[in-house]
């Protein structure tokens, strides 16, 4: 009987030990650090070709197709635009090389705006570009895939010889 009682006590102690649960907790504080970030890109590529084939196109100008841009920004932003030079670079047979000014030859308008912001007043219709930065879009809202589109219009008149005239146009998206 003593053996039975000892076995029962031993089993009872084991059962109590199995059911006496213990627990502990470990915690961690997770800090996610986000830096201001912004990206602007052309969805059409970098080259825009505007061709002139008649005196009518020289005198009245030629408009480009729609050029699409996208902005991703985690803060509200503005977009400005400028030419990378006050004159077009020339590639052709005339010597000396003619200097066609960008101002009053190359124009731009915002044709679509899905940025949550507003178009700067001068770019609601075709406005001249220059080498000085000008506000294009104001008070744009943060988020991914904010889009806008522009159209260019070149109107060189008949003062310049045949050839290729090139200038870069720089779009800058900035978080104020």
Tell me what the structure shows:
The protein has a single domain (37-174), classed as Immunoglobulin-like (Sandwich), CATH 2.60.40. 14% of the residues lie in helices and 37% in strands. It has two helices and twelve strands. It has helices at residues 2-19, 55-60, and strands at residues 38-42, 62-63, 67-73, 77-83, 89-91, 106-114, 118-119, 127-128, 134-140, 143-154, 164-166, 169-174.
Ordered list of secondary-structure elements with their pairings:
Elements: H1 2-19, E1 38-42, H2 55-60, E2 62-63, E3 67-73, E4 77-83, E5 89-91, E6 106-114, E7 118-119, E8 127-128, E9 134-140, E10 143-154, E11 164-166, E12 169-174
Antiparallel strand pairs: 1-3, 2-10, 3-10, 4-9, 4-12, 5-11, 6-8, 6-10, 7-9
User: From the helix content, strand content and strand pairing, which structural class follows?
Assistant: mainly beta
Top CATH class: Mainly Beta
What percent strand? 35-45%
**In percent, how helical is the residue content?**
10-25%
Radius of gyration: 34 Å
Average pLDDT reading: 90
> What name does the CATH topology carry?
Immunoglobulin-like
Net shape: elongated
């Amino acid at each position: 009987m003593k053996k039975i009682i000892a076995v029962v006590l031993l089993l009872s102690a084991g059962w109590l030990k199995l059911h006496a649960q213990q627990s502990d907790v470990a915690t961690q504080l997770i800090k996610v650090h986000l830096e201001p970030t912004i990206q602007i890109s052309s969805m059409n590529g970098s080259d825009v070709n505007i061709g002139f084939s008649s005196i009518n196109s020289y005198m009245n100008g030629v408009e480009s197709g729609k050029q699409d841009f996208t902005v991703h920004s985690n803060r509200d932003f503005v977009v400005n635009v400028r030419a990378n030079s006050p004159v077009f670079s020339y590639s052709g047979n005339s010597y000396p090389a003619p200097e066609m000014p960008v101002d009053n030859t190359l124009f731009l308008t915002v044709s679509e705006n899905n940025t949550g912001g507003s178009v700067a007043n001068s770019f609601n219709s075709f406005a001249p570009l220059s080498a000085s930065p000008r506000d294009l879009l104001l008070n744009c809202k943060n988020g991914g895939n904010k889009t806008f589109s522009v159209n260019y219009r070149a109107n060189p008149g008949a003062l310049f010889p045949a050839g290729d005239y090139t200038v870069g146009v720089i779009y800058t998206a900035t978080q104020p």
